[in-house]
Amino acid sequence: QSVLTQPSSASGTPGQRVIISCSGSNSNMGTKNVYWYQQFPGAAPKLLIQRNDQRPSGVPDRFSGSKSGTSASLAINGLRSEDEADYYCAAWDDSLSGPLFGTGTKVTVL
Amino acid sequence: VQLVESGGGLEQPGRSLRLSCAASGFNFGVYAMSWVRQAPGKGLQWVSLIRSKAYGETTEYAPSVKGRFTISRDDSKSIAYLQMNSLKSEDTAVYYCATGAWPLEHWGQGALVTVSS
């Protein structure tokens, strides 16, 4: 079964840059766009990055995404305390015939 | 856009439960609808989707729920449903409905389903 693999945690001090990686396969990230979701405790996920590197309206420009082959990354520049949340990458998976979410990364602001 | 899930609760293994997702603020009939779940302390897992009438209301299911769960929609009421049969303890999760097949742009607040004897 396909998996999108992320580090379980990442951390940084305010103002630092944090990068979260996401690794998939040809049935998903290799041929499909990657999306990133942000989720605060007790809340629903929110779309943060769409189509690999595009920010929906209202998302601060300190968040950026990139993709290369079967890997993608989310960068948070100028880390702020309010960025402390869980982050999930996701992509459509042809073998699943549905979207596949990454394992999730908890970002802590030290 | 507003999505409000209801119908969650405590149910015994082997029993059934039906979740509803009441939608407002957009043209429900032209959108696919999806369900995603999140077990306590775990990550997100896609469950099912139903396409719009224009796409034949075709459905897709995650392997873990195929044959047990059924997704449906009532465009006249702007409601999406998830009928969950033969519930297992591993179905315990917060269930979110969301707009679209992919990407999932708008999400409800979630409904907690607990399967336990």
Main attributes of the structure:
heterodimer, A: mainly beta, 6-stranded mixed β-sheet, B: 117 residues, mainly beta, 4-stranded antiparallel β-sheet, 0% helix
- Reading side by side through the largest sheet of chain B, how are the strands ordered? 2-10-9-4-5-6
Number of strands of chain A: 9
How many alpha or pi helices of chain A?
Answer: 0
Counting helices, strands and paired strands, the structural category of chain A is mainly beta
Sheet of most strands of chain B: 6 strands, mixed
Shape of chain B: globular
Share in helix of chain A: under 10%
Radius of gyration of chain B: 13 Å
What is the terminal-to-terminal distance of chain A? 35 Å
Q: Roughly what percent helix of chain B?
A: under 10%
Largest interface: A-B, 23 and 21 residues
CA distance, first residue to last residue of chain B: 37 Å
Largest sheet of chain A: 6 strands, mixed
Shape of chain A: globular
SS content category of chain B: mainly beta
Chain-averaged pLDDT of chain B: 97
Order of helices and strands of chain A: EEEEEEEEE
The quaternary organization reads as heterodimer
DSSP strand (E) fraction of chain A? over 45%
Description of the molecule:
The complex is a heterodimer of chains A (110) and B (117). By secondary structure, chain A is mainly β. In chain A, 0% of the residues lie in helices and 45% in strands. In chain A, the strands form 2 sheets. In chain A, strands 1, 3, 4, 7, 8 and 9 form a 6-stranded mixed beta sheet that branches. In chain A, strand 5 and strand 6 form a beta hairpin. Chain B is mainly β and 117 residues long. In chain B, the strands form 2 sheets. Chain B has a 6-stranded mixed beta sheet, with no helix packed on it. A 4-stranded antiparallel beta sheet of chain B has the order 1-3-8-7, with no helix packed on it. In chain B, a hairpin with a 5-residue loop joins strand 4 and strand 5. The model of chain B has no long low-confidence stretch (mean pLDDT 97). Chains A and B meet through strand 3, strand 7 and strand 8 of A and strand 5 of B.
